[in-house]
Amino acid sequence: MFQPQARRALRPPFQQAQAFGYLAAALAVGLSCVGSGIAVAAGAPAAIGATSEDPKNFVKALIFVVLGEGIALYGLLIAILIISNVGTALGI
Hints:
Layout (H helix, E strand, L loop, with lengths): L11 H42 L4 H33 L2
Helix pairs in contact: 1-2
């Protein structure tokens, strides 16, 4: 039968290191989303204006908006990598 193992208590240095890992992941997502919001806020109105003047510029304008949104995706990817390696780096 399945016997539950006793849970090991983490020592304070491990808890602190784990907390800093999660803080780094949160900062990666938060700051990249703020940067992405600033980039899209600057690029989207210009893209709409360029498209309204000449519809042929739609794809060129869309590329600049998508590049701004890509920053947030990179931050999310980095956060996932940090969270997946927090326990591994501590030997847990």
